[in-house]
Amino acid sequence: MKKKCMTSREFNQNQKLAHELAQEGPVVITNRGRPEYVFLRWEDWEALTKVPRKGIVDFLASPETADIDFEVPRLEMGLRAVEW
What we know:
The chain is α+β, with helices and mostly antiparallel strands. The chain has helices at residues 8-13, 15-22, 42-49, 56-61; strands at 4-7, 27-31, 34-39.
């Protein structure tokens, strides 16, 4: 994904070009030569901000946690039948 740049003046005067450039990737909008904003498609924004939801099984099975020893302590509970 190639990053494109536009000045804020170019962006204000030619938004159609900004939309076309955003189809290829993020467009950096500069103000006085310094990056100030990023213009991108909604789908790209969602992909950047999407947080994967993992369960405990996925977490423990991931390569990052493969070398962690994990044992669940056994709970000794005295269970008895319920008297009605």
